[in-house]
Amino acid sequence: MTRPFSRSGLVAVSLAALVASGCSTSRFSSMDDQQPAPLTPAPSGTVTQNQLPPPASPGTTDPSQFPTAPKNTQVASLPPDGAAPAGATDLTAASVAGVWNVNVSGQSCKVATPQTKFGAGYRAGPLHCPAPIDGIKSWNVAGKQLTLYDENGGTLARLYSSGGEKFDGQTSNGQPISLTR
Q1: How far apart are CA 59 and CA 163, in angstroms?
Q2: Nearest CA to 136 among 124, 121, 153, 120?
Q3: Measured distance CA(160)–CA(88) in Å, rounded
Q4: Minimal CA–CA distance to 132: which of 175, 68, 73, 181?
Q5: How far apart are CA 108 and CA 68, in angstroms?
Q6: Cis status, amide bond into 114, omega within 30 of 0
């Protein structure tokens, strides 16, 4: 018994019919005559020019340039000799790893502290942080202290656990800093 059409022949004829019928459609012909509506112009205003204040000298900080910390933000004071405050707990890398909300003198940002080995500690990634925290490249723990380092291994901040998911400390230039989750 012979078949009148082969399977491949039937597919070829079907495709040819679909292509031919698609070319003769009039569905899109009505769009050729239409023009889009013109756009309304953006509002314009006047541009003003003001003189910026001179930049602060390196090493000087004008406190009026920075917003104040929210009233409910408390940063524990550190002992002047750099010792751990009473109640600080021993730290492990696993207890520090994660993403932290950082408050530096009233300015907020985030810092990621993954457990990816880097230099003498672990890699760190600041996100939209103010100086000097914008320069964090690594972190490490030793006993009760969490230390944040710059790209050259210099200390940017030292912090201690304040209980739960919170660290308080100071940057290398004396600014209060806290990390919370």
Answers
A1: 33
A2: 124
A3: 6
A4: 175
A5: 11
A6: no
**112, two tokens:** 């990621």
* Three-state secondary-structure class, residue 22: helix
- In one-letter notation, the amino acid at residue 159 is L
Could you give the CA distance from residue 10 to residue 28 in angstroms, rounded to a whole number?
29
Question: What is the number of alpha carbons within 13 Å of residue 125 lying toward its C-beta?
Answer: 8
pTM, two decimals, is 0.55
Q: Residue-wise pLDDT tens for the chain (181 aa)?
A: 555 667 776 666 666 665 655 555 555 555 556 677 777 776 676 767 777 677 665 555 554 444 444 444 444 444 444 566 666 778 899 999 999 999 998 899 999 999 999 887 999 999 999 888 999 999 999 988 999 999 999 999 999 988 778 999 999 999 999 999 9
Cβ–Cβ < 8 Å for 180, 169: no
